[in-house]
Amino acid sequence: MLSQKTKYALKALLYLAEQDVNHISKTVEIAEAASIPKKFLEQILLDLKRGHFVGSKQGKFGGYYLLKSKNDITLADIHRLFDGAIALLPCASLNFYERCSDCVDESECLLRHGLITIREETLKAMQGITIASLVKK
Amino acid sequence: MLSQKTKYALKALLYLAEQDVNHISKTVEIAEAASIPKKFLEQILLDLKRGHFVGSKQGKFGGYYLLKSKNDITLADIHRLFDGAIALLPCASLNFYERCSDCVDESECLLRHGLITIREETLKAMQGITIASLVKK
DNA sequence: TTAAACCCTACTAGTTTTATAGAATTAATT
DNA sequence: AATTAATTCTATAAAACTAGTAGGGTTTAA
């Protein structure tokens, strides 16, 4: 399941994607439009900025805007930024790989094989969902 | 990500699937073979029993055994039993549906549409992984 | 009757999640 | 230069969840 943070991040990105190009959105504006607690959204937007998904302008009349194209921001990206691995266990993860402490021989782990299959399929599905594809529907 | 409980449940089921038919496995036996804390495993096996995946025999020389066929226990089943919904948000879930409190018109929620697609694809993938398919590989 | 197993409920320590608070920094306007 | 309005940063806190422990109770075979 997605965390609230990931859900809010996606809603915020959807809001930004729906604005005119060159429009800059204030945090409070996004917060109200998408029903997100303002101070919580601040942190989320900062994380999105550090992830290079959005850009910001500081000071008066500042705000946020999409940095990447709507087509290049996928559900997989945002999931990884806020909720981490797509895989169901760290040992089956590409980006968040970690060995199981209790695992004697990873290459012979019955569970891992299946989880790698699942990861490949869900990753593909999640990479198919972009901010653009969501806005379009 | 899977919780430890789900991971342990799968490992326990894999162990049971590898035993001879008619063999009955004690908790302590499974716990040692699969490196699972015994008292924790007790709870997990009880949950699996309540979910009708395993059966038990009480008293001396009792233990656990697979109730369903290896082919009929899927990753989706076990995920749902211990970790709940397959979907990424409750509003996109089949078995754990819940409305978003902040959602005005669900049918027009941009996010939900994409999440339903994802759920359909991951569910299909997770239903394709069975205890039998894991043991076989 | 005893031993060995499952069954059941409660509890706890630690972690994670979901925020909130408040001050610092930046930039445009007056 | 002062003011205002915005982002940026760090710390804190309450609630929920996770992973595991504890301690019995119940059942069955010998």
From TrEMBL, chains A, B:
Molecular-function GO terms, alphabetical: DNA binding; DNA-binding transcription factor activity
InterPro entries, alphabetized: Tscrpt_reg_Rrf2 (IPR000944), WH-like_DNA-bd_sf (IPR036388), WH_DNA-bd_sf (IPR036390)
Cellular component GO terms held in the UniProt record: cytosol
Entry keywords, A to Z: DNA-binding
Domain of life: Bacteria
UniProt keyword annotation of DNA-binding present: yes
NCBIfam families with a match to the protein in the record: rrf2_super (TIGR00738)
Protein name, as recorded: Transcriptional regulator, BadM/Rrf2 family
